[in-house]
Automatic annotation (TrEMBL), chain A:
Keywords: Cell membrane, Membrane, Transmembrane, Transmembrane helix, Transport
Domain of life: Bacteria
InterPro entries with a match to the protein in the record: ABC_transporter_permease, MetI-like, MetI-like_sf
Identification of the protein by name: Lactose transport system permease protein LacF
Residue ranges constituting the ABC transmembrane type-1 domain according to the UniProt record: 65-295
Segments traversing the membrane: 7-32, 69-90, 102-122, 165-188, 215-234, 273-294
UniProt family annotation: Belongs to the binding-protein-dependent transport system permease family.
Subcellular locations according to the entry: Cell membrane
Xref: Pfam families: BPD_transp_1 (PF00528)
Membrane topology listed for this record: Multi-pass membrane protein
Principal place of residence: membrane
UniProtKB/TrEMBL annotation, chain B:
Alphabetically ordered keywords of this record: ATP-binding, Hydrolase, Nucleotide-binding, Transport
Name by which UniProt lists this protein: Maltose/maltodextrin import ATP-binding protein MalK
InterPro entries assigned: AAA+_ATPase, ABC_transporter-like_ATP-bd, ABC_transporter-like_CS, ABC_transpr_MalK-like, ABC_transpr_MalK/UgpC-like, Mo/tungstate-bd_C_term_dom, NA-bd_OB-fold, P-loop_NTPase
CDD domains attached to this UniProt entry: ABC_MalK_N (cd03301)
Gene giving rise to this polypeptide: malK_1
Protein's organism: Pelagimonas phthalicica
Lineage of origin: Bacteria, Pseudomonadati, Pseudomonadota, Alphaproteobacteria, Rhodobacterales
Stored SUPFAM superfamilies: MOP-like, P-loop containing nucleoside triphosphate hydrolases
Family: Belongs to the ABC transporter superfamily.
Length: 306, 377
């Protein structure tokens, strides 16, 4: 019996594209990560897992993981939380809400590299507006706070160039830049909640805002939350442009802001160590993959109501 | 004791008035239906009664207490929504338990995970109540499912169950059957009536379907353009509508209406025939209404028409007749045996039952006057 081959023509083009532009590059990266290849070299030595060994033993990479995870685990919860809070507040407003929506979304639309320059000025130790503002508070009740008193006595921190503050300052800018995006996603989620559910909740005796939130809003935003958290994780893991703008030379004070994307760029592009760059990329992909799998699991188990 | 009373309720959305001075008293244990075409304000009135909407003016009282400014949650009413409004993330049992949990448990007892442990006794009582109601509604096997896994009819029952678990003062129902298929709707009509008889609680039921109103209610209130036009038992409203709009809205197929005139001699001129009235009226244009079942085929009938369409319902046949002088086709109910002798486009003679004829003024108000049963030549 002659079997039709039409199905191959249907799936063929998509499959071919996926292999060529997604799977092959990943495979090449995985292959390169096992070598000491440099761009321009005609050949490369196979070095086995040496690159991975470096990643998990050397202190530079320990700092890289430290900076990346600090950034991710500060920025993700706060952008998600602030995004939800802002969305709920805007949702409860009428027309004025549109203005806030635009304002909060502005940083998302702006190019982060340009915004980084603005922040650099703002955080500048002598001409920056942040420390200038803080100095005005000297001599007031704020000095009861030991940290503040110390700042007045000597100087306020060099926000971007102090090893103890740099990663948190960068995280702050990341939050400022990122929560508007989550807010828009949450706003879409909020609009899709049927109003009759709130009516039902009211009739059932949910009197406080917290009761309504627990009974209707939060569960109904479940699918949105899973998506928002996943996308936030991926976006924060990918942070690069801000670090490059602030610290073009090597990842901040004592490499405290040496995030993964910057490491890939520095090793693979600046130092032309393709092997190690590819290895970091593979580790990065593994993280993202794990997060995606967790998300799938949650979608199936928890938020799939229908 | 828990008589519900709405007094001079007014409500407008923006510039549009939705309710104009509406008043309605509902006795305890009554099944009252608010019926009217869409946009007549019936749902708004129900929402004002429930407290979900605030009236611009007027007073709502339940059991003699003024509750106009009381929150819905504190009015002790239960509502069944058109969309059912079940919480999709909760199982059927949890959905039904929600009203109990919100009312009977303190804050700490509602905490997830540890709440059920802290307030174990209350939970056991609540689970008992839920099971009892589930038993009544025959949904016990569904208790562990999520609403998404239920059919429309099953969801309807769960929504009803959620309303029933705590004995409320009244059940408010906002078109609860309109999302069901026709057969299920008819079945649920009977079940709701049965449920009302068993619970002996007040039911306030909103519908646009006059058949639901006629079949289930003790009393029905016909609403139009933000006013209640007539309140009364279904039989009375059907047989004795107080205005043309009510007469047209209630009854299916709709009542036949004819433009007619009361002549100077006090007789009624109706599509070419003169009929005498019980008492003569002054000369005026009037509208005559007569229901399809009060017209009958008769070889000696005074009216004639051509059969345009036969609507066969099995038990009855409705004949649509083109009658000269009438603007719309006249609908006449015939029994299948009679109708079998009628062929399409043929001429038939028919007559009316004079005591069933309704007269309306040109403004639509009912004229308290009937046709004489016997013609005085």
């Amino acid at each position: 019996m002659q079997q039709s081959r039409a199905h191959l023509w249907f799936i063929g083009p998509a499959l071919a594209l996926m292999v060529v532009i997604l799977l092959i590059p990943i495979a090449i990266a995985a292959g390169l990560s096992l070598t000491d290849y440099s761009l321009g070299n005609s050949g490369a030595e196979f070095v086995g897992l040496e690159n991975y060994e470096k990643i998990f033993t050397r202190s530079t990479y320990e700092k890289m993981f430290g900076a990346t995870f600090r950034y991710v685990f500060v920025v993700v919860p706060l952008t998600v939380g602030l995004g939800l809070g802002a969305a709920m507040m805007i949702h409860s407003l009428g027309r004025i809400g549109d203005i806030y929506k635009t304002i909060y979304f502005l940083p998302v639309m702006a190019a982060l590299i340009a915004m980084a320059i603005v922040w650099e000025f703002a955080f500048h130790p002598t001409i920056g507006v942040v420390n200038a503002t803080l100095e005005r508070g000297c001599g007031t009740i704020l000095e009861n706070w030991a940290w503040y008193a110390k700042g007045c006595e000597r100087t306020f921190p060099l926000w971007l160039n102090d090893r103890d503050y740099a990663i948190w300052t960068v995280s702050f800018i990341g939050i400022w830049q990122g929560f508007g995006f989550n807010m828009v996603l949450y706003l879409a989620g909020l609009t899709s909640i049927p109003p009759s559910l709130y009516d039902a909740a009211e009739m059932d005796g949910a009197q406080s805002g917290w009761d309504r939130f627990r009974l209707v809003t939060w569960p109904m935003l479940g699918p949105t939350t899973v998506f928002v958290i996943t996308i936030s994780f991926i976006r924060t893991f990918q942070v690069f442009d801000m670090v490059e703008a602030f610290y073009p030379q090597g990842g901040g004070p004592s490499k405290s802001v040496y995030v993964m994307m910057f490491a890939i760029y520095e090793k693979g592009i600046q130092q032309n160590l393709m092997g190690i760059g590819a290895a970091i990329t593979v580790v990065f992909l593994a993280f993202v993959m794990i997060l995606t799998l967790i998300q799938r699991w949650f979608v199936e188990r928890r938020t799939h109501y229908v | 004791m828990s008589k519900i009373s709405l007094q001079s309720i007014e409500k407008s959305f923006g510039e549009t008035p939705v309710l104009k001075q509406v008043s309605l008293d509902i006795e305890e244990g009554e099944f009252v239906t608010l019926v009217g075409p869409s946009g007549c304000g019936k749902s708004t009135l129900l929402r004002i009664l429930s407290g979900l909407e605030q009236a611009d003016a007027g007073r709502v009282s339940i059991g003699g207490m003024n509750v106009t400014d009381v929150r819905p949650a504190e009015r002790n009413l239960a509502m069944v929504f058109q969309s059912y409004a079940l919480y999709p993330h909760l199982s059927v049992a949890d959905n039904m338990m929600t009203p109990l949990r919100m009312r009977d448990l303190p804050m700490w007892g509602r905490l997830p995970m540890i709440g059920p442990l802290l307030a174990r006794d209350t939970y056991r009582v609540m689970q008992g109540q839920v099971r009892e109601v589930a038993e009544t509604l025959k949904i016990t096997p569904l208790l562990d499912r999520k609403p998404g896994q239920l059919s429309g009819g099953q969801r309807q029952r769960v929504a009803l169950g959620r309303a029933m678990v705590r004995q409320p003062v009244a059940f408010l129902m906002d078109e609860p059957l309109s999302n069901l298929d026709a057969a299920l709707r008819v079945h649920m009509r009977a079940e709701l009536s049965e449920l009302h008889r068993r619970l002996k609680t007040t039911f306030v039921y909103v519908t646009h379907d006059q058949a639901e109103a006629l079949t289930m209610s003790d009393r029905m209130a016909v609403m139009m353009h933000g006013n209640i036009l007539q309140v009364g038992p279904p039989d009375e409203i059907y047989a004795n509508p107080n205005c043309l709009e009510v007469a047209r809205f209630i009854g299916s197929p709709a009542i036949n209406t004819f433009a007619a005139e009361i002549q100077s001699d006090g007789h009624l001129a109706l599509i070419g025939t003169t009929l005498s009235l019980v008492q003569p009226l002054t000369r005026a244009p009037v509208t005559v209404g007569i229901r399809p079942e009060h017209l009958f085929l008769s070889p000696t009938g005074r009216f004639q028409g051509h059969v345009r369409y036969r609507e066969n319902l099995g038990s009855d046949v409705f004949l649509h007749l083109d009658v000269e002088g009438a603007q719309q086709p006249v609908v006449l109910r015939a029994n299948p045996a009679q109708a079998a002798q009628v062929t399409l486009r043929n001429r038939v003679c028919f007559d009316l039952e004079p005591d069933k004829v309704l007269l309306f003024q040109s403004t639509g108000e009912r004229l308290p006057c009937a046709l004489a049963t016997r013609e005085v030549a």
